[in-house]
C-alpha cells in the first residue's frame, strides 16, 4: 500500500474538470487533505471558523468515511485485510494512529457490532480523515474520483435533512 502522508502532491495542469466537486466547507477540507492541496484545505478551514461555518460538518465526514470504506472493503472481507490496511495507515501517518479504534470504525461500517462509544469526537474525526486519505492513496483515485465521493457524501447528508455550510 502506498499511504503518502505528508508528501506534496503534484498538480497536473489540465482543463477545468466537468465533474461535481464538493461545495461544503468540510468537503473542501477533506478534498484538500486527500489531494494534498494545503492552500485549498486552509482556505476552507479558515471559513469554518466563521459563525455557522462548522454547521453539520460531522455528518459529511461520516458519510465520506462510510463511502470510502465501502469502496475499499467488500462486505464480509477477511479481518486480516482490515488489520493489514490499518497497519499500513499507521506506518504512513505515524504511531498516534489508534489501530484498534480505526479497525473498529471500519468494521462498524461493514456491519459488525463494535465498541466505539468511548472514542472522543476528535479521535473519530482524525481516524475517519486518515482512513479517507489512505483509501484515496491505496485505490489511486483521480481528482474526479475523490470529488465524486465527496460530492456524493454531501448529497447523502442533504438528503437526510442536514444543511452543511458551503464555501
In short:
By secondary structure, this protein is an all-alpha fold.
Number of DSSP E strands: 0
**Which residue ranges are poorly predicted, with pLDDT under 50 across at least 5 consecutive positions?**
6-16
Question: Which band does the percent of strand residues land in?
Answer: under 5%
Radius of gyration: 15 Å
- In quaternary terms, these chains amount to single chain
Q: Ends: how far apart?
A: 33 Å
The ordered string of helix (H) and strand (E) elements is HHHHHHH
Class per helix and strand makeup: mainly alpha
Shape: globular
The chain-level mean pLDDT equals 89
Describe the main β-sheet briefly. Answer: none
Report what the structure shows.
With 167 residues, the protein is mainly alpha-helical. Helices cover 59% and strands 0% of the residues. It is built from seven helices and no strands. The chain has helices at residues 25-34, 38-48, 57-72, 79-93, 99-109, 121-138, 143-159. α1 packs parallel to α3, α3 (57-72) crosses α6 (121-138) and α4 crosses α5.
Amino acid at each position: 500500500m502506498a499511504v503518502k502522508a505528508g508528501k506534496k502532491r503534484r498538480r497536473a495542469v489540465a482543463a477545468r474538470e466537468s465533474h461535481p466537486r464538493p461545495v461544503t466547507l468540510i468537503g473542501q477540507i477533506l478534498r484538500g487533505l486527500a489531494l494534498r492541496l494545503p492552500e485549498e484545505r486552509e482556505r476552507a478551514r479558515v471559513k469554518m471558523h466563521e459563525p455557522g461555518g462548522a454547521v453539520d460538518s460531522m455528518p459529511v465526514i461520516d458519510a465520506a468515511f462510510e463511502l470510502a470504506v465501502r469502496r475499499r472493503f467488500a462486505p464480509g472481507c477477511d479481518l486480516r485485510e482490515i488489520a493489514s490496511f490499518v497497519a499500513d495507515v499507521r506506518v504512513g501517518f505515524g504511531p498516534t494512529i489508534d489501530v484498534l479504534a480505526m479497525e473498529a470504525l471500519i468494521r462498524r461500517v461493514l456491519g459488525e457490532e463494535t465498541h466505539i462509544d468511548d472514542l472522543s469526537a476528535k479521535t473519530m474525526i482524525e481516524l475517519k480523515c486518515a482512513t479517507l486519505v489512505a483509501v484515496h492513496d491505496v485505490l489511486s483515485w483521480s481528482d474526479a474520483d475523490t470529488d465524486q465521493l465527496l460530492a456524493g457524501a454531501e448529497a447523502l447528508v442533504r438528503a437526510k435533512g442536514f444543511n452543511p455550510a458551503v464555501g
